[in-house]
Structure formats: structure tokens, C-alpha cells
Design a protein that fits this description.
There is one protein chain. The two termini are about 20 Å apart. The protein has one domain (about 5-65, about 75-185). Strands 1-2 form a two-stranded antiparallel ribbon. The protein is built from nine helices and two strands. It is globular, with a radius of gyration of 18 Å. With about 200 residues, it is an all-alpha fold. The longest helix is centred in the C-terminal third of the chain and has 27 residues, at about 140-165.
Length: about 200
């Protein structure tokens, strides 16, 4: 992809978080973000998503840095293999909770959680204004908030790491990158993509 186009992909991240104020069910667009990396990985047998298509990476590169701001060294533990695996485990657990809680809501065994949560544990007690109201099943609304929570958490963590260290520090521990590396290693075709952290 041409660099000029890649530099504008951050608009998709901004649009995603804007659209949830139109209607929360648009948070289900996160399914596209979960699916496209798999598609490109299988099609190209390399980390095309990380290298050329990831809107979050483009978004993180837009975080301004002062020329006089010293670059802190990234702690080795933060980008270690153990840390990367813990991030994968966290998001796997998050998806498991989202799936199981949605099923519980669907069968009437659990009340829907209609607020976002940070890192699964911390509820953010806000009411999102909705420009368009849709009378969709509560389990679908619950799932929409769970997807929003996952996208919000990873983006906020990425922004914090960009401010503390370098813009694309998140890319070094992103579960998509870690799982892609594991797949390519098993296929024997992997050369690990090191993002320009800046």
C-alpha cells in the first residue's frame, strides 16, 4: 500500500469510536478488525496487516511528539515473549467472557451489561448518547458493548505506551502480531516484522 494511503488509515479508528455514538451496535464492526488480519495472513503468508493495513498503527503514528522530548528506552520486560503471551491470554480470556456472557444474556440467565469496561474489570459508568435508536435484542447490545470495551482498552493502552515510550510500542505486544508470528513460525515462512516504533 502506498505510504500516503497508509497514513490516512487512522481515520477508520476515529470513525469506529465516533460511530458508537450513532448507534452502539455499530461497535460490531470490530468483527472486521478481528477478521481482516487473518484474511491477509492466509492470503499473503506474511504480516501484511501489521505492515500495511492496520488503522490502529496509523492512528498511533499520529500522536504528536515534541522534537525535544527524549525517547525513553522501552523496558525489555514489556516487549518480552512472556509479556506478549500474557497479552494474548488476556484477549483470549476477554473474548471468552464476551462470548459466554452474551450467551447467558441470550438465554435470560444474566442481565446485559450496557456500559463499556476497561480491562474487563473496571466499569465506565457512562451513558452513550445515541443518534439512532434500534430495538435490537439485548444480547446483541451486550455484545456490542463488549466489543467496544475490547477496542477501547487496546487503543487506550496503545496511546499510553505511545506517550510513555514510542508511537508503535503497542505493535510489539499486539496479540494480532504475536499470533501471526506463531503461525508463520510454524509454517516456516516467518520473518518477524519489526514496526518502526518512532
Amino acid at each position: 500500500m502506498k505510504p500516503g494511503i497508509w497514513s490516512k488509515l487512522w481515520l477508520f479508528t476515529a470513525a469506529y469510536f465516533s460511530l458508537v455514538f450513532v448507534n452502539i451496535h455499530l461497535a460490531l464492526l470490530a468483527l472486521i478488525c478481528f477478521s481482516l488480519p487473518v484474511y491477509f495472513l492466509l492470503r499473503d503468508q506474511k504480516k501484511s496487516w501489521c505492515q500495511s493495513y492496520c488503522p490502529r498503527a496509523s492512528f498511533l503514528m499520529k500522536i504528536p511528539r515534541s522534537k525535544n522530548q527524549p525517547l525513553r528506552p522501552i523496558p525489555a520486560w514489556l516487549v518480552s515473549e512472556k509479556a506478549r503471551q500474557w497479552v494474548v491470554r488476556y484477549f483470549t480470556l476477554n473474548l471468552f467472557f464476551a462470548t459466554m456472557s452474551t450467551l447467558m444474556v441470550a438465554v435470560g440467565r444474566m442481565a446485559p451489561m450496557l456500559i463499556p469496561r476497561f480491562l474487563i474489570l473496571f466499569p465506565i459508568d457512562v451513558t452513550l448518547p445515541q443518534l439512532v435508536s434500534l430495538d435490537w435484542p439485548l444480547w446483541l447490545t451486550h455484545l456490542s458493548f463488549r466489543f467496544l470495551s475490547m477496542m477501547m482498552t487496546s487503543t487506550l493502552v496503545g496511546v499510553a505506551l505511545a506517550i510513555l515510550y514510542r508511537n508503535r510500542t503497542w505493535c510489539a505486544i499486539c496479540p494480532v502480531a504475536t499470533l501471526s508470528d506463531q503461525y508463520l513460525d510454524r509454517k516456516g515462512t516467518g520473518s518477524r516484522f519489526v514496526p518502526p516504533l518512532r
